[in-house]
Each structure stands twice: as C-alpha cells, then as structure tokens.
Amino acid sequence: MQQLRNLGPMRLAVIGGVAVAVLAFVIFLAVRFSGPEMGLLYSNLSQQDAGRIVQTLEQQNVPHRLGPDGTSVMVPLDQVPRTRLDLATQGLPTGGSIGYEIFDRSQGLATSSFVQNINQLRALEGELARTIQGFDNIRSARVHLVLPQRELFSRERQEPSASIVLRMNTQQRLDRAQVAAVQQVVAAAVPGLRPDRISMSDERGTLLARIDGSGGSGDLQTIEERRLAYQDRVARELESMLERSVGQGRVRVSVSATMDMARTQENRESFNPDQQVVRSTQTVNELSEQRDSDANPSVTIANNLPQGQVQVGQNGSSSVSRSSRNEETINFEISREVRNRVIEPGGLSRLNVAVMIDQNALVFSPDGTRAMRPWNEQELARFERLTRSALPFDAARGDTVEVIPVMMIDPADEFREPRRLFGLDRQELFRLAEVLVLGAVGALVLLLVVRPLIARLFETAPGAAAQPGMLGYGGDVPQLAGPLSTDLTVMDDDGGDPLEEMIDLNRIEGRVKASSLRKIGEIVEKHPEEVVAILRNWLYQES
Fold it and tell me: Quick check: pTM over 0.90?
C-alpha cells in the first residue's frame, strides 16, 4: 500500500486506465477468437424471408449473425449445409413469393371456387417469379397474370396477358435475346398466352417489351439495340484491321452512330412529255350513195322490182350522189411514274469514329531487338485514310474520323491477379497479420505495463536511505565490520556522503542507479551475515 501511495494519484489514474484498456482488449480477443468461424447462409434476401429465417434459427438455437444491410444471414461455417437443408424442408427462402406450397395448407370444406381460383393464380405467379429469378443478373421478379374466364353463352373470348417487373442485381439491362427468353418461358407455362401479349419493365421504369406485339424496325428499343450492335460491330472490325499494323491490344476504336428515328412515307408522281406512247387507235371508214329522180313514176309492181330501177330513166330523169368519210383517232399516253417510298426509322444519318493508338510504335532493329519510337505524321495520316475507306464515310452529312496517339496502359498490369505470398491467400495473410499484431501488442503490454509495475513493488521506499542508523551510522544498528567499515569511513572522510550523490531518491523518484545496485550486490556477497543482521533490524523497526 505504501508503494501505491508513493506513486501519486496521477500515476494511479494512468495505471488504472491502462489496466482497463488491457482488460477490454483481452476480452475482445477472447470473444473474437472463441466464437466459431461464420459462413454465408443466404444473401440478397427479402425482408420477409430474412425475418422468417432468423426466427427459425432462433427456434433451433443456431448461432447466427445478420448482415448490416439486413438481407444476408451468416451461421457457423460447419453448419451451413445442414442449416440450408433444414430451411429448405420448411420452404425457406421463398424468394418473396408464394408457390404451389399454398395448397399444402389445410383448406376447409367450405372453401369456394373463387378462392381456389385465386390461390391457383397466386401459385402460378409465384412459381413463374421464382423461375425468372434464376436468370443471371435478376435479383427479384413480380409476375401479374390476367386469365379471363369465358362466360356462358358467349362466343367472344379474351386473350390472356401478363406483365413482369424485374429488379436487376447490377446496372446492366437485359438484352433482346434475354427478354425474348423470359417471354417464352412465361408464355409456355400459361395456356393460351402468346409471347407478344407479355409486357416487361425493370425497376427503373425502362420498358423492355410491350404488349402491342410491335417487334419490327419501328420499335424504338429495337432501333437502339441495332444502333449499339452496329457500333460494336464497326469498332471490332476496325480494331481487328488496325491491330495487324499497330499490335495486339495497342489500339482502341470508339464509334458513335446517329440514326434517324422518324418514319418517312414519300409519294411521288412524275410525267415525261418527251416519251409518248400510243395508247389506242380508232379508224372509221364510211361510204354513202344517194339517188334522186325528177318524175314520179306510177306505183306498179314493176317499179318495185329490183330490175325496175334500171328502167326508171326511161320514164323520167334521176341523179345519183356518192360520199365517203375516213376518220382515224389516235390516243397518246404521256410517260407517268408513280413512286411510293416508305423509309423506316433506323437509317444512318451521321457517323463519328475516334481511333486511339499507342503513342509509341513497336519496331525491330536488324539485330532483332525491340525498340519504341513515336508515330510520325505520315503514318497517322495513313491510318486515318485506311479507317475512312473501311467505313461508309460521307463528309456531306458531317461524318468525322480522328486518329490520335495516346499513352496506353496494359490491362494485364492493371488487373493482374495478386501474387500469393508464401503460398497464402489474402484471407490467410490477414489472419496471420492479426495474430502477429496481437502478439506484438501483448509483448508491449508486458514490457511497458506489467514489468514497470512489478519493478516498482521491489524498489526501495523513498527516504529510506536518509534514516539514521542505516548502514551503521549511529543508533543501535550494528555497523559492518572489517573492510566494509573501512570503505564507508574513507568515503565519509572525502567530504560528503557518496551514497547520497549516487542515490537521490527524491530526484529520480525511487529508482536506483545500476552502479549503486551492483555495489550493494557486491557488499551482500562479501558480508552476507552482516547484511542479514541489518535486514532483521529493519524488519524489527518496521514492526
């Protein structure tokens, strides 16, 4: 207790704080390393599934830890397979939807057909949602089916339809082939449902497929996909062509194509007067003969006979008139051209191409050594002409081609797989570093905290050297005989107590110099009996 009082309140507070910190650190280490290693049970769970799984694990007394986002659950690593099997027997996780297990529940005899139909629809929607969630990059799905019931005595029949809302794991979107695959899966599972009667959208509100069945070139989504596909195809072809001269992986091509999204219908009718074509020809030939007579012959049978006309002139005078008419009508048709032209959206209206090549050209010297040199202007101009010739380049519509040398970084150096140090992976290295750090902290605690505390317990109390009678100066304490007394006398005669000069307990706060300790040890070895007598006297005085 006297030693603790001599330390002072400030030092006691520091020692207490260090002791509390060390105790807390030891408790943390005990908890950290005493618990089992945790493994991932499920991730990307819905809030409903996560709550049910945690409740089930608590009922089974399985240690578990919930992730910070509340969508992942971890259990001891050796219990992961067993726990998954136990949860699967209970239908967990459900994926946020109910499937055919809805019919496993007890149904009362009074259940109506309406409830049965609704349960069947819910089960079908849930099973389809689970199937769609099996696709890559799809986190969750909601399926809504519209299955109209055919009414009695009705000839009209409505077609079923469906709508699907997808939630993606990443910022990527489904391409056209994946959207069509989802539509085919849903259409094949629902009787009478056609793929063009299924609409799809993602969580960002982007329409992936529509019900109107317009899958032609007029669909804006199809036009955008065609534009992206065209850009990728042109970029790959240009890179493949330029890499033969520049080098593998030393060229990058970016293509920006602008397509016309408007649908244009053009009707044109033209006439060419220089080109005449006979359409029809009409010819009329008319011949007429008229005979006039002055006398009026009597009406007899002879006059009415055909031969009587010849004899008319014998009885009286007559005149004969003949006329002919020839008419020809020719209808000409002027050359006429009628053109109906429909321009569907998706036509290329502008093309911009940027080519990046490594700023240094790889050349080989005659002796076979490799060297790097910058590209000159003639070589860059040749690359630009080569790129233009491989494109449908049209300067009139504003097409541009730029070839720029830049410093390029090898992707292999940027994304190189980290090396294994001493055959250990990253996780093993972290655990090894953690153990080393803990060992170093423990050693520092022993050296800086425990050792000074133990040393203080064995130090001489302050002021003990100044007590009278110590080491034989006055009082009833016996003095050391022999050489010890002589040495002490000589030291006292030199003027001043040398022990007081070497051991200033008030100045160094109870610490004794190493030289003084060695001298005291030598005295104890030379005169053990006298030292024992002095110690006994001290103990007697203390008591």
Answer: no
